[in-house]
Design brief:
This protein is an all-alpha fold. It has one domain. It contains four helices and no strands. Helix 1 packs across helix 2. The longest helix has 18 residues. It binds zinc ion (ZN). Zinc ion binds next to helix 4. Zinc ion (ZN) binds next to helix 4.
Length: 86
């Protein structure tokens, strides 16, 4: 029997810093599609963030005006730092 048990993490201050670092890298490589948060989603998957927490995170991005990946840095960075300040 094959069991795919992925390590799941809880987003906190430290993980958020990793996210920002990785997002900056990916934006440099992939660029921003100016449409959605696809790079952000790739990173959250990589990090092993559970789906419901991913949804909450991405919702927070949009709430703060981050509707595409580069807008996370432009509009949502401060909001996210406050939200995940533990
Ligand atoms: Zn963008």
């Amino acid at each position: 029997m094959y069991i795919d048990k992925k390590r799941e993490i809880k987003l906190n201050k430290k993980e958020l810093e990793k996210f920002f670092k990785r997002l900056a890298e990916l934006l440099e490589v992939n660029g921003c599609n100016a449409r959605d948060l696809s790079n952000a989603q790739i990173i959250l998957d990589e990090m092993g963030v559970p789906e419901d927490e991913q949804d909450e995170f991405l919702e927070g991005c949009r709430y703060a005006g981050g509707f595409c990946d580069c807008e996370i840095f432009l509009n949502a960075e401060e909001y996210l730092r406050e939200k995940y300040s533990d």
